[in-house]
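[agent] plan:
  1. take the single chain provided in the ticket
  2. run structure prediction with default settings
  3. attach structure tokens to the ticket
  4. add a short note for the reviewer (M.T.)
[agent] executing step 1
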Amino acid sequence: MMNTIKTSELKEGMRFDKPVYIDGNNLLVPPNIPLKQKDIDRLLRWEIQEVETEGSIIKEISKPIDLSEMNIQLSQIKIEKDSPYSTWTNQLNEIFDDIKKKRLAVAGSNHQIIDTITNEMLDEIDKNPQDILKNIIRGQKDEEMLSLSALNCASISAIIAKAHKMPQFRIMQLITASLLHDSGMLRVPDEIINKKTKLAPEELQKIKMHTIYSYQIVLQELKYPEDISVIVLYHHEKWDGTGYPKNISGEAIPIGARILGVADAYEAMLNQRPYRDALIGYTAMKNILSDNGTHFDPNILKIFLQCFGIFPVGSYILLNNSMVGTVIAVNSNSPMRPRIKLLYNKEGDKVKENTEIDLLENENLFIIKAIDPKDLRETS
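[agent] step 2 finished; step 3 output follows
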């Protein structure tokens, strides 16, 4: 049943739990999107006296939540010592040190270690992809940044590739390429990589050379086949042909490189860089999805959204009833309605028991916004 609301009663910032229509057909505002003053002014200018909706006005939260008082423990920004991520990180640190110092004599043993990580990572993703995603949204120590970034990209790429139904051996090639895709950065001067101000054109060109360096490392030093090496070489090519190093476009870019390109861009936004702070998962996802077919393969973006959701695993979110939770699983058919674990109830008290809510099964609950972990105080 449609409810009628007089235009004179509308106020800027009002939100409704169902779409609001003009004349029953034309959408004025989607659910949970605040009304803007320009929307109301337009109705008045058009002399529209009333609007319709099947829903009702969302009441504002009665008790403002002071996130700084919440003392939420950010467990997922720390890698547990017994986590596979911890072992893989240490192994990659040693391999990248060998590559940086050009210790080519150990290339064969490094090849074997990388293959082992690839196999173990694929096994972990096969068992529980949601679990491995918890390692992705977190900060990074500078000395481990390259290794953790490589593992994150490999995890993201493998999950997209599995959803894309790539053959298993191709997924393994993609994981290997993802682990090594930025190894060429080890051949770029540190003062350029760590520079906090805008790069000069010649410095930017040296950064762009890292894809060629990576290709040479993977193919010539680590002795991997061309199928893996070209993924590394082309992971910064863009769908519209504006990428590098060869300005190829569309399906001319190998499918593995297209997947890795999305994973690399997303992972880079999630983690701190010398020139900017990390973004929260929701903001990073929004930035990636706003691409409009410029940089990324639209089909890969669609699969990426289904796998990771608008609010990726590990995101902190605020619900419409004032409860705070963290996303623990994504519903691929409904990216806006993940499964969450409650951290604080509507009164702002910490939830002691383990309480999970599937928003797909609770139509009256929805996410108001994502919360930046920097707004939460970590417990000791």
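[agent] step 4 note for reviewer: Residues 61-78 have pLDDT under 50 and may be disordered.
[agent] ticket updated
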